[in-house]
Amino acid sequence: MRIAVVIRAFGFALLGGLLLLAMLARSQASAEPAPDVPLPSADARYFIEFRARPNGLLGHTFVVYGRTDATGRVLNQSYAGFIPDARDWRGMFVTIPASVREDKDDSRLKPDSVYRRELNATEYARLLRTVRFLRNNEHKWHLIFLNCNDFAIELAEALDMRRPPSLLTPALWVSTLRLLNE
Fold this sequence. Notes:
six-stranded antiparallel β-sheet
């Protein structure tokens, strides 16, 4: 009986430590982006798409953003997602190095869910500053506490969007984001 109490206490202490680590890492990643990105053209049209695609067990959330013409045809686009730097099972238990970048499968695999939102020049400039800030800073990834949904949350918050919690599968997260903002 006494051993079970010690094991339970150790488990709660470990969980508390992981939560504290996640909160500290999140507070470092959410600092204000640098304001050195030039303002896009006021008469141009811009967009962001929050996408979820298959990836192993749960899937992957990432964004596509860029410029369109007057008919909505994409003129240029960029991809960004929050991806572990190595395929490492330890990311299920502890944080591992990660970066904001395009994954080869982002453009190759068909998305399960897509939410497209038109942006004005001011919103697009804010998006570019935020992506640039997140790309230029060191990150840690964790399956539960710091994952690709958390990256998408940073972008949604930069655009003043309502957003769901991160503890959803990517397809459900993107679908819920759409419901909250339409």
